Amino acid sequence: MTAIALTIAGSDSAGGAGLQADLRTFAALGVHGATAITALTAQNTLAVEGVHMVPPEFVLAQMRTIAKDLNVVAIKTGMLGTLGIVEAVVEGLKAFPGVPVVVDPVMVAQSGDPLLDDNAVDAVRTKLMPLAVVVTPNMPEAARLLGSAIARDEAEMTAQATRLRALGANAVLLKGGHATGPTSIDIFVDGDGTIRFEAPRTPTKHTHGTGCTLSAAIAAELAKGASLREAVAAAKAYVSAAIAAADQLDIGKGRGPVHHFHAWWAPS
Fold first, then answer.
1. How many angstroms separate the CA atoms of 127 and 248, rounded?
2. SS3 of 60, please?
3. DSSP letter for each residue of 114-125
4. Where are the domains of the chain?
5. What is the CATH number of domain 4-248?
């Protein structure tokens, strides 16, 4: 049976992040991708110049229509944008009982543009996160969800990941890409303990869509039957390789995407 994953996310008109990155990740990892679009953006590699939110009732309609026909076995959420859409997604997930949900709590674009309304943060925290098999915040997102300062070191990252899990998620992967140093450290916390993932930092500015790609890769691996810990480890390896190959691409004048198809395209 073909593994199918659903992404509930916004569209990136330049193709670097959002559901376009999710679909490329699903395809690269051998999974069919379905979509429920939450937002249209006018953006390129330099900036987000406009956002048009999809009405919540139509986000819900997309999810329910997919559930009637496709055997979705993993779901990821990305940019949700508004309180109404967060609530629509929570309602829509009822059509997928038992399906693991990877929540990427997208709040701010790499350009600094806000992607989640302030009044929607509490709904993500209290309504969506408890439905997640894993939540994948970066350091600023974790701090905002907790109402805390950004973690200053690995010990504070571990403490924040533990606090986030206590809000109801099955597991948390707190991403350390915003920290400094020669390596990037992510902290994974679940009911069995803590895992530390460390990878060398690649000297490239082309990291657009990294968070979307990671959460999509976790969902893809879950769709293929991996355990959560196996899925996180495989996704981390895939994303690290995609970042390492990013400079093989020449896309736009600003911060370009990672190379989702690094294993198949010949270096340029």
1. 41
2. helix
3. B-B-GGGHHHII
4. 4-248
5. 3.40.1190.20
Say which residue, 86 or 111, is predicted with more confidence: 86
Whether the predicted pLDDT of 113 surpasses 80: no
The pLDDT of residue 267 is 75
pLDDT digits (tens, 9 = 90+) for 28-62: 999 999 999 999 999 999 988 999 999 999 999 99
- pTM check: above 0.85: yes
At 194, give phi and psi (nearest 5°). -125, 140
User: CB atoms < 10 A from the CB of 49, how many?
Assistant: 12
Distance CA 129, CA 104 (A): 10
Amino acid identity, residue 26? F
Q: What is the C-alpha separation between 214 and 240, in angstroms, rounded?
A: 9
- Largest Cα–Cα separation, the chain: 48
Which of the residues are catalytic? 175, 207, 209-212
Phi-psi domain of 45 (left: phi exceeds 0; alpha: psi -120 through 50; beta: other) = alpha
Residue 259 has pLDDT above 80, yes or no: yes
Q: Residue 201: its pLDDT value, please?
A: 80
Count CB neighbours of 75 within 10 A.
29
